[in-house]
Design a protein that fits this description.
Structural class: alpha/beta
Helix content: 25-40%
Radius of gyration: 21 Å
CATH superfamily of the largest domain: Vaccinia Virus protein VP39
Number of strands: 12
CATH class of the largest domain: Alpha Beta
Number of domains: 2
Oligomer: single chain
């Protein structure tokens, strides 16, 4: 059994030669001509959830040509141990009851979809096609705005890791976190190839197992509305995001004022056991500001594409009104007004999908460790 010790190095994209938690069986991405150069290891940015120490010890039990598949990580200060199974580091050592309930739901869902090919699940081909098209349109627009990656990127609520794969493909040292491996993080391997690799960690966004200010980019797609406490989640994301680091949020549902007068709010109803919140835009922006982020909302690419094609369906909020607006969208003055002066009023009134781009401008304090009495 191989043993590795955490060595002090540098993070946030700067070079280190510490042994990695990943890609143990072949050269790391970015190697040239087989030179013994490794990108920063995941161990470099981890901290103990119990005591907050960063003195962690990695023991490898098995590995393949992609990653360490089985092992454990232990804290030298308090002795707490974190298991590595199937290439996934488990940091849900103090799972909240709501997380445990959600994990049971996802486990049952995996049983229902047992005959579905992993490749289809990883690429979400089993999902509603309109939802898949909308979320992918907004993600493509985000990738088009991102410069080639430098340093670490965090994908919160990564699910099947399709978005994490895109970040890794842009050159980021990406880390996917989610509360479940069942048909979620375990599907990450379906996206791996010679140019794409990312780490996978079971973690609670309200108690992240990462050191302060290590991520140059923090990202979430249709994930934060599942948080049991939005302020706590954004505070933790702020804590682990580097100063002047970016926060990109896409595909989050926003509750518009007009939805109080309609029976169907357009909210995706989840199964019992899954937290589903439907915040107004003022709640989103207030929480982001309190967490130390400053930014702006962008006009959703999926709405732009559907207005151009006039292809709204019954699953879209106010689809009759949207169809009427689509008739005039081809006229440039109307389009400019809609995406300009009318955008924020529309966001407040109708609740368009949240597409937020911001920067961390101030530090936000949040609990660094779990209460020892838990």
């Amino acid at each position: 059994m191989e043993k590795y010790q955490r060595k002090k190095g540098t993070v946030a994209g700067r070079t280190t030669v510490a042994p990695g938690l990943v890609r143990s069986g072949r050269p790391a991405l970015g190697d040239k001509g087989g030179e013994p150069f490794m990108r920063p290891s995941l161990v470099e940015i981890l901290k103990c959830l119990k005591c907050g120490a960063d003195d962690l010890h990695l023991m490898v039990k098995s590995k393949d040509d992609l990653e360490i598949t089985k092992g454990l990580l232990s804290c030298r200060r308090c002795g707490l141990t974190y298991l590595i199974e199937d290439g996934i580091l488990n940091c849900l050592v103090f799972a909240d009851p709501s997380i445990s309930a959600a994990r049971r739901v996802y486990r049952r869902s995996k049983e229902v979809l047992g005959d579905t090919l992993p490749e289809m699940l990883a690429r979400r081909w089993h999902m509603d096609s309109a939802y898949r098209q909308d979320t992918e349109a907004n993600y493509r627009e985000l990738l088009s705005r991102l410069d080639p990656g430098q340093g670490w990127a965090l994908d919160v609520g990564a699910g099947t890791c399709w978005t994490t794969a895109g970040l890794a493909g842009r050159g980021y040292r990406a880390v996917a976190i989610d509360i479940s491996a069942d048909n979620k993080l375990e599907l990450g391997r379906q996206h791996f190839d010679k140019d794409v690799y990312f780490d996978r960690v079971l973690a609670d966004v309200n108690h992240l197992p990462f050191s302060n200010e290590v991520f140059g980019l923090s990202f979430a797609s249709a994930a934060l509305h599942h948080s049991r406490d939005l302020d706590s989640s954004l505070a933790e994301i702020s804590r682990t995001t580097a100063s002047r680091g970016r926060l990109e949020i896409i595909n989050e549902p926003v509750r518009g004022l007009a939805e109080a007068f309609q029976k169907n709010t357009g909210q995706l109803e989840g199964p019992e056991g899954i937290v589903e919140k439907h915040y107004g835009i003022s709640t989103w922006m207030g929480s982001l500001e309190r967490s130390g982020f400053k930014g702006r909302c962008r006009f959703p690419a999926n709405i732009r594409e559907r207005l151009t094609a006039g292809s709204f369906t019954g699953r879209h909020k106010f689809h009759f009104l949207a169809g009427l607006i689509a008739r005039f969208y081809r006229y440039r003055p109307f389009r400019s007004m809609l995406e300009g002066a009318s955008f924020y009023p529309g966001l407040y009134l109708l609740g368009l999908p949240l597409i937020y781009s911001g920067e961390k401008t101030s530090a936000k304090k949040s609990p660094a460790v779990y209460d020892k009495g838990r």
